Amino acid sequence: MLLKSRTAIVTGCNRGIGKAVLETLAHNGADIWACARQPSDDFLAFIEDLKRATGSAIEPVFFDLADSAAVKEGVKAITGAKKPIDILVNNAGAIHTSPFMMLTEAKMREMFEVNFFSQMIFTQYIARTMVRQRKGSIINISSSAAIEGNEGRAAYAAAKSALITASKVMSRELGPANVRVNAIAPGLTQTDMMTGSTSADALTSTVERTAMRRVGKPEEIAGAVLFLASDLSSYVTGQVLRVDGGM
């Protein structure tokens, strides 16, 4: 129960890493604003089951991060509850694989819009509350691609790299208000996104370069999020935590 009496916001939590983060934080006592782009019966049923299993208050909020008007409405719903916001996990994202010479301007802009700009704008809104209450932990989910520079991931890796740099800058600016900002760089993780964007050859090659010789599990990334969200990391800020099995 590392997060008892804490309130968290998790974006993109209807599947993959985000869903594992939602589950891990709830099992550790956090109340959670569970943000996703669109409602679904399966996701709503999952939330109800998780609430019964953990006793945590979990409220779904649906908005598209690429829609600035929808983001504002989502923020109003969250801040209108007048509850402290202790944790923000920026997990929502999209991926695109393309050789650099075939990469379109539209896809480059899309990767930055989804993986960087929208998350920065959302964080600005939420960070205001954290600064006023003089406490908070912001965790940005980047990618090992931002560090490794994987082939075919020029736009995606660049956007995730921008997220890492912004995290470091934010940590310096928000640190005096006792708001910590860190990034996590997951390696290959067993999610639908990985399956749909990584060829069998690329997967095999990457696993062979990984010390642990396997793909990660979403709950293993969620464990790193829990560490950075809790007081176990109370003196950790401006860092990039690689969770990649030793790439």
Short recap of the structure:
This protein is of the alpha/beta class. It has a single domain, classed as 3-Layer(aba) Sandwich (Rossmann fold). The chain has 9 helices and 7 strands, in the order βαβαβαβαβααβαααβ.
CATH superfamily: NAD(P)-binding Rossmann-like Domain
CATH fold-level assignment: Rossmann fold
Largest sheet: 7 strands, parallel
* Number of helices, counting only DSSP H or I runs of 4 residues or more: 9
Q: How big is the Rg? A: 17 Å
Order of helices and strands: EHEHEHEHEHHEHHHE
Strand order of the main beta sheet, please? 3-2-1-4-5-6-7
Give the % helix: 40-55%
How far apart are the termini? Answer: 31 Å
**Residue-averaged pLDDT, rounded?**
94
CATH architecture: 3-Layer(aba) Sandwich
User: What gross morphology would you assign?
Assistant: globular
Q: Indicate the proportion of strand residues.
A: 15-25%
* Overall SS class: alpha/beta
User: How many β-strand runs?
Assistant: 7
CATH C-level: Alpha Beta
Number of domains: 1
Enumerate the spans where pLDDT stays under 50 for 5 or more consecutive residues: none
